[in-house]
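Q: I'm writing up a methods section and want to include an example of the input and output format. Could you take the sequence below and give the corresponding predicted structure tokens, formatted cleanly so I can copy it straight into the document?
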Amino acid sequence: MRRVLTAIALTGILASCGTAQTNSTSEVNSNNTKMDHKVTVGTFLGAVMNNDPETMRKYANADYIQHNPFIPTGLEPFIQMLPVLQENGTTAENIRMFQDGNYVFMHNIWRNAKPFGADEAVSFDIIRLDDNGKVAEHWDAMTPLVKETASGRTQTDGPTTPTDLDKTDANKALAKAMVEDILMGKNPQKITDYISTEQYDQHNPGIKDGLAGIVEAVEYLTSQNNMFQYTKIHKVLGEGNFVLTISEGKWNGTTNVFYDLLRFENGKAVEHWDVIQEIPTENLANDNSMFNF
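A: Here is the clean output for your methods example:
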């Protein structure tokens, strides 16, 4: 089975969610005060890891919408797939977790992840909570973990805590414009308007650090007639100086989803992580697409 589950318990947040698991949904939302969305997500995913359907039903909607193309939509079909995690000893470590309105977006490492097509993998996961604070929808993208990278960095290391929370909207606008101008090719000559010339820590395993690394990668891909093409931005999420863009495009002769996480300092991107996944067209478990935000 290629990929049977993508929402998973995240070991880095479960300790903070222990007390929250004892509260009922009505208690969480009493007096119109919403439980912190990150804690809600942690509680729900803790229940996933523990194969605890009762808690999952408490914190998620019955019509939970699934955008992982290999998982059926709906909460009950999702619950029925949980034993596969335990059978394979699959676990995940949360590296980063951010919140933008009703969306919580996460950067994770998977281990014993053979059900997902790799022994170890890296993913971005997005969960939307509804206006009542219940888990309502899930998107993700995953790529195999690479041990040796061009920059010497891993696919997940680097800062994890957002700063400049008052600049969230400005940084989201910067990230969107950067994708449009540089990756979609509207104004590629403006690259230094968006990317720092002094620091650009690169976590894509095939690209070296700095602007020079980007130029080298573009020249190589172009020489192979295999340069990736971004065609549409579907969503931009951010918290402070971290912004995640979710885009669609072409690469290797296929249609792909591109998740790009950027860290900004003083109005310039200084760090980049990404996950690129081919969008499947066969053996789909739902017809929700990997987008439809």
